Amino acid sequence: MGASAKVREDEAEIADSYLGYCFPNPVKEETVIYFYIPEEAGKGVLRISNTSTGAVVKEFVVSGKDYMNFSVADLAPGVYGYTLYVREVPVATKKLVVVK
Fold first, then answer.
1. Among 50, 73, 75, 85, which is 20 to 30 Å from 30 by CA?
2. Range of 23's domain?
């Protein structure tokens, strides 16, 4: 397989990845985040960042078609972004609103 074919294959696997909306949102205690990463793409990273400062507040290694329960107990009220990265490429970013 040539280099350009490998790049196209990698791009297809990343494009097939999916980040769902979290529920509930806004969230007081815990939310569920859905995601999908094709097996061929391996593992991904789900990164949660404070939108006002850009600081990463949590990071998780994820894989497959799954969901994760995410507790916001240690987060201050505010707006956060959660981004799915596959092979260090951002797939999608969604908004998470934390209320207390």
1. 85
2. 3-98
